[in-house]
Amino acid sequence: MFSARDMPSPSSIFSAYASMTASMMLFRSMANDLIPQPLRGYLLNAIRYLIEPRSSTLTLIIEESAGISRNMVYDAAEAYLSSRVTPDNHRLTVTKTRMDKNLSLRLEKGEKLIDVFNAVPFKWRFVCSVESEKTNDVVVHNSSNARSAEKRWFEVTFPKKQKEMAVQVYLPFILERAREMMEQQRVLKMHTLDPSVCYSGVKWDSIILDHPSTFETLAMDPELKNAVMQDLDRFVKRKEFYKRVGRAWKRGYLLYGPPGTGKSSLIAAMANYLKFDIFDLQLGNVVRDSDLRRLLLATANRSILVIEDIDCTVDIPDRRHAHGLKQSDIQITLSGLLNFIDGLWSSCGDERIIIFTTNHKERLDPALLRPGRMDMHIHMSYCSYQGFKLLASNYLQTPSDHPLYGEIEGLIEDIQITPAQVAEELMKDEDAEATLEGFVKLLKRKKMEGDVCQNNSAEPKRSKVGCKQKSKGNIGVSVTQRRTRRIR
Ligand SMILES: Nc1ncnc2c1ncn2[C@@H]1O[C@H](COP(=O)(O)OP(=O)(O)OP(=O)(O)O)[C@@H](O)[C@H]1O
Ligand SMILES: [Mg+2]
């Protein structure tokens, strides 16, 4: 056995190392004269390998780019380490772009950080260098005016015996964590057609989607709301399912109901819930089939394609005249559009949602209502008592009960009042009492005026889901009245 007595003392180690280094120098000077160059290099490396002290740590270099692409591990490390800065860090960079929700802190050049993972310390260092123009040598960067030639990388050092864990567990963990962080910070975008580009072809223009509507603020039948949320949850989880059954990973929703019942608000709530961008395709601005094809190809995965008011439209004769086009140039039909979208998304679209809205479901082209076209038909309807309570607690922050609520319940269930009208009424006064009294008066007035739900009304009071009935109309995209709308 190896006992303490057998252990070499530090001074003996030092003198042994010194004598080995001296022998090395001696060997080098002798070798210069006696041994030819290629062999000399090989021997020197072999001797150095045998006598130099062995390191017990391993350092991974994570460069910013991998060839011409960005290195995903670098981006992930940058995002992940920004959440691990400690009071020991002396210099941090702070940034916020137009597309960021929050300020982000990042390590500044030369900063170090220790991240303990599974009880193993990982020592990180952020390094920048600039390529010197004359010599092509890499020198440590300390001037800010040479940013274009700057090379950046992270070094992470850890015990060598943890190599497997670092590569198989730690780095994948960082990639996943960073993906989650980026997802949370993602700013949603709303893409609309740029009206300035007309004849030469339309293109998407984007703004930040800052719509406050969420499922919590949306007044709709609670069962229906749950059904929609569950449908969305199921959809995003079923990548493998769609692949297995050979279907495009897409889902279609038809939202129908009178103006002001929350169709556009529901679209915004869905986008906020899934963190999907919206592409608002105003068909009235698309003249040619080729434009439509180009626009659809330019939409992104994990997005919602919205076509509002499909029963309304596109004043074809006017547009044809304005653009000097022949009838044959205008080929946009609803079934053509749907077939094209199906084909396109089957081959190159993932996690796509398409939403059509209409105020008149009965006027729609049967092609759209055919089973398999729109997966879910969602009826948005007049405000129920439940809906009123939700809006009142949002707008007035009143408690869940109030002496006037009984009277409101009795009146509202018989009256056709949209959530938009209710919301408008609830915003009229900052004083909750006065507002509710005014609201009761409005309901009574409406009742007197006969603005009530008829038993045989085409618009049932409560929202329904999934009633895929056929209708007679064959209007689709090509009808008479032009009406372009945006999500408000
Ligand atoms: N169900 C609802 N829940 C909460 N707020 C609503 C609801 N419906 C309407 N509102 C309010 O009314 C405004 C207009 O509603 P929205 O634009 O969503 O209606 P719409 O059904 O899309 O109408 P249109 O058919 O005219 O496009 C919204 O910005 C919102 O403030
Ligand atoms: Mg709308």
TrEMBL record:
GO terms for biological process: response to stress. Keywords: ATP-binding, Hydrolase, Magnesium, Nucleotide-binding. SMART domains: AAA (SM00382). It catalyses: ATP + H2O = ADP + phosphate + H(+). GO terms for molecular function: ATP binding; hydrolase activity. InterPro entries: AAA+_ATPase (IPR003593), AAA_N_dom (IPR025753), At3g28540-like_C (IPR058017), ATPase_AAA_core (IPR003959), ATPase_AAA_CS (IPR003960), Mitochondrial_chaperone_BCS1 (IPR050747), P-loop_NTPase (IPR027417). This is AAA+ ATPase domain-containing protein. Its cofactor is Mg(2+). Residues 249-384 form the AAA+ ATPase domain. It comes from the Eukaryota. Belongs to the AAA ATPase family. BCS1 subfamily. SUPFAM superfamilies: P-loop containing nucleoside triphosphate hydrolases. Transmembrane segments: none annotated. Residues 453-488 are annotated as: Disordered.
